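Q: I have 320 residues here and want to know how they pack in 3D. Can you give me a structure?
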Amino acid sequence: MWQLAGVRRLSGALLVFGVFMAAVLVSGRGTALASHQFTDVPDSAGYHDFVDFLVDNGLTSGCGAGVYCGGNAVTRGQMAIFLKRLALLGGCAADAVKVGPACVDKYEASVWWTQNAALIQKIRLSTVTAADLTAPAAAQLGTQPGVFEAYGCDATGNGAGCKEVYAVSIPGVVPSRYMTWFQAAAAARNAGKRFPTNAEWQAAALGTPEGSCNTSSGVVAATGTSAGCVSHAGAFDMVGNLWEWVADWVPRSTTSGSWGSFSDDNQGLAGAATDGPPGALMRGGNSFPSPSPTLHGVFAVYGGNSPTVAFAGIGFRAAR
């Protein structure tokens, strides 16, 4: 029995050593990186660069109030979280697919309000389940107009309640909508994610069979229920169901152009406005029927909406 305990101790030590070796390889030992975020980690600290690596990669946020507490003991629970986060650096969590260096969510986002610390941790580690997201611990936002605002997250994303909304990628949930680009950006940020860029979205969507997707029912379906609507990368519902906000803004489009013979998908990037708000790109189309050129498809793109609009047919998916 003591031999087994010794092996476990050795394995644990090797894992911890791996964390620090990863920091050395990525950050470069002895090099002062961008200014660290903790008042108790001076440039002269031997572990300064390692702490920068952990912060830059989302592995730690310190112990609060702008300090790192480098002399504090680490519990087995905290170590489990560190190791899980470190493991995710080399690949994607189960709720996302690998697209070049990015991890793009498998499912359109459902957005949840919560103040429950344990639940927030699960969301950020991508281990949350639908069973975890039950009242009173959480409430889904974006199921009807005005819900974001009712929870204190206004259209600009600046409201205090915008710090308490989180984007989740799970199957079997009707995705959230009725949110501006800014509200969606806050939910992605709080979950430790971001919007995919237009190029990342396009790469993740390639290979999605339009005929298997929810493009004409007029009803927003639960994530993943259109079983054949899966891209080559393994992402669901990238065509139809909901238009999806992406990171990029353009001069707001005033009309739709054409892909010509390349595709009959909508190309809504023509007639750029010369005043007023910018256009926030959205991709893929939604579940409402449309004539040709179709408003849905792998190449469907539209830049005619300001980032301040919030419609029933627009949602998003997040990325890391």
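Q: Anything worth noting?
A: The longest strand covers residues 243-250. Helices lie at 2-27, 48-56, 76-89, 117-124, 147-150, 181-190, 198-205.
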